[in-house]
Amino acid sequence: MAALPVIDPMPPVAACVLPWDGTVTNTVATIGRARSDCGDTFVVDSGEDRYLFLFSAAGLHAFYTVPETQASKGIADWKMLRRKLPDELFIGRRTLPHELFGRVAVAGYLDALEEAISLQLAELDGGCEIELFDFSRRLGHRLGLASWAGREVLRSVRFDELTAALDALDGAEAFVAPERMREVALNNKAAERRAMAQAEEILAESIGARAGPGNDLLGTIVTRWDDTAGAERMAGITRDVILVHIGSMSNLFAALGWSLVHLVQHPDVLARLRSGQDQGTDADLASRCVLESIRIGQRSIMLRTVLEPVAVDDGSQAYDVSPGATLATFLPLTNLAGAPGLDLYDPDRWRGQRPVSPAGLPAEAITTFGHGPHACPARPFSVTAIVRVIERLFGAYDLERRFSGAEPRPGQIGGVARAAAPCPVAVTPRAERRYPG
Asked: Which of 16, 30, 52, 250 has its CB 3.0 to 4.6 Å from that of 172, i.e. a possible disulfide?
């Protein structure tokens, strides 16, 4: 085993591992105990990796501001996802998720969103019961695939088969169910390769039925492969679509799911939302509800792979960190425990896009879509999309809670939380539909 990277001076080393390297029943509790035992700066040696965790105000600021050339978030994210995804999915890509959210493209996605919502709501019969995260996941698939796989795929007879394959391939499982990654590695990602091949086949059928490239994002992806032919060309196109979809949709559905769960759990907020929409007041309440649900739902471990020697100052000590180490912080320990009251749902803690309650928190103490150069470019689109779903769903239907509580999956260590147990609701059409569409 190679020597672990050097951190000088060496902070306290926590007596734990991360869940893809050993048994961790509750990730938040485990890292929380490490912080309690060791302080706001500590090291976790896990598997063949050394992680420097930072939680102080200065440490968080340093984490987000160190240049990407010195400590790469992109490489750290790739290292996590490749625990689940076949390596060949990453090779030779010509369209990447971060390219997707320019202003012109987003306008097209919002058109696709309306079609996706309409199809989803058409499935809701009076008196039916749905599970909120299943509902959100299916809607997320519809929205994403309509945006970059061509809207015609929404009506494919193989649509359900396609989404099942994408769910089996889903790279988010690397952090949602990290305990499974040892099994995935032992099986050499065989199930994932089968799922990828199935998704490629279905997408190739849909793309092949097009009369031409088209003037949507799929058309752009297709055109980027014009210098190739045959199987190479179609594999390139379909894998671009798959990676774009996995990279863009893995957390949107979960953020939508928690937004719906919290509104069902807080009928007073829902009543305000409906009243404000009807009367044209409190216009940004829905957006604030979304940001609050994402804040509470965040389970992201933020990672940055150190590429060249870097100095990190946590406010009390400067540490020289050698290449190969990973800088880390863990959002539930700041978002939910950084000050009294942060464990409670309160959309009024937001003013626009900024939290104002509790007062006096450092800028990086609460994170929804990231900070600085690594802030998620999909933020405006994601919030707008979830708000529109809220408007149309709660405008047309009443949702009666059929679950007692909703808790995050305890082993998750990344992304927006998945629920530990189903969150079913009974759906009943409202007598008077208030929102257009």
From this structure: 250
Query: Taking the alpha carbons of 235, 240, 246, 249 in that order, is the dihedral positive or negative?
Result: negative
- Same domain? For 81 and 133 the reply is no
Query: Residue 140 in contact with residue 253, Cβ under 8 Å?
Result: yes
Same domain, 142 and 29: no
Distance between CA atoms of 140 and 386, rounded to whole angstroms?
10
Q: What three-state secondary structure class fits 393? A: helix
Residue-wise pLDDT tens digits, 10-26: 999 999 999 999 999 99
Q: How far apart are the first and last CA of the chain?
A: 60
Q: What are 198-228's pLDDT values in tens digits?
A: 999 999 999 999 988 888 889 999 999 999 9
- Structural domain boundaries, residue 30: 1-85+300-331
In the chain, count H helices and then E strands.
Answer: 16, 13
Residue 397 in contact with residue 427, Cβ under 8 Å?
yes
Q: To which residue do tokens 């997707």 refer? A: 100
Contact 353, 291 (CB under 8 A): yes
Q: How far apart are alpha carbons 234 and 347 in whole angstroms?
A: 46
Instruction: In whole angstroms, give the CA distance from residue 334 to residue 213.
Output: 46
Which residues fall within 8 angstroms of residue 81, CB to CB, at 6 or more apart? 171, 174
Residue pair 181/20 in contact (Cβ under 8 Å)? The answer is yes
Q: Which helix (H) or strand (E) holds 305?
A: strand 301-306
Q: Is residue 293 domain-shared with residue 408, that is, in the same domain?
A: yes
Residues 214 and 324 in one domain: no
Q: Where does residue 422 fall: left (phi above 0), alpha (psi -120 to 50 degrees), or beta otherwise?
A: beta
